[in-house]
Amino acid sequence: MTQPPLNFDTPTSRRSDHATSAEAAAHQNKGSRQADAAELLCVIRQHPQCTLRELANLSRLDAAAVSKRLSDLSKAGAIYPSGTSVCSISKRNARAWRVTEP
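Below the sequence we write its predicted structure tokens.
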């Protein structure tokens, strides 16, 4: 199964953001953003119904990076929130994610 290419051309900072945010956005490597999203998509495909913390635990990404890539993937329509699940790490209810089937 082939996933359509993800579009990460959307701005990562706003005009109203502090200058350091714009500088960080300009410095951000678009390739690593796509690679991180692709890795996360693969993890979600292998482990559906995982929470953010569980995904961070299963990947090489930290929770902050997972959160950002979940947002990117959700906006791209590649994944969707599939309800809540008790997180095995925090032991609390958290949003769970699934891959959108083509």
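The chain has a mean pLDDT of 86.
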